[in-house]
């Protein structure tokens, strides 16, 4: 079981108060910002991806990592020559502390609007995991985000010359959302997907096979199908080390389909283990 500890010090900032787990050091391994393709960059870490899109009329950020990661994210944005105050929107994949913990501080310090799915927005506003979240038993709270703009599956966010589409990929959480857009370099264009987690992670006492959790298993099937169907030249996973990946993004043909298949295999294996 993953242990989660929130540390505080006198005079600290409650929105960047560190959350420490057994994985924190690996998740926040420093990495220089890099260009993925065209107007799209990564400004995150060795184990947690944070994406940045330059739309020509402002910046879009995807995910916010842990609360204590906020200064490093802003520094990486600046290293690329951009101004943090030009971030207009911050898109959320899921209301878990490792991806949403930094959103409140980032929104405060950039003035950006946070965007999430309807269920994702509920979690962000409370800073707690939903009652039907398989990881609810961790009770891993994070700074809540009071103001959240909601985008439903298939809805689009347009800023400058970029259109980002919300793609519902539920399972890991019921409100998990992946984000897709096109980036171009001259006449060459690529479909980019920033994928929410799709792995069946839970507390030790949770059973995906329990009748009460049938909706979660059904949601995984929907999320996997949606991921398989996405145009996907470049895949960025919210966890940079997802499925043993050694690169911060993947350009392998069929990467999104492989990601969905890996999720299906893991869930099938988990259900078999529970049945045994």
Describe this structure as you would to a colleague.
- The protein is α/β, with parallel strands linked by helices and 276 residues long.
- The chain has a single domain (12-275), classed as Ribonuclease Z/Hydroxyacylglutathione hydrolase-like (Metallo-beta-lactamase, Chain A, 4-Layer Sandwich), CATH 3.60.15.10.
- Helix content is 26%, strand content 24%.
- It has helices at residues 24-27, 70-79, 97-100, 103-110, 118-126, 214-229, 255-275, and strands at residues 4-6, 19-21, 34-37, 40-42, 51-54, 59-62, 87-91, 113-116, 148-150, 156-159, 162-168, 177-185, 188-195, 234-237.
- It has a seven-stranded mixed sheet.
- The longest helix has 21 residues, at 255-275.
- The protein starts with a strand and ends with a helix.
Keywords:
276 residues, alpha/beta, Metallo-beta-lactamase, Chain A, 7-stranded mixed β-sheet, 7 helices
- Count of discrete structural domains: 1
Q: Would you state the CATH class?
A: Alpha Beta
> What portion of the residues fall into strands of 2 or more residues?
15-25%
Q: Give the overall shape.
A: globular
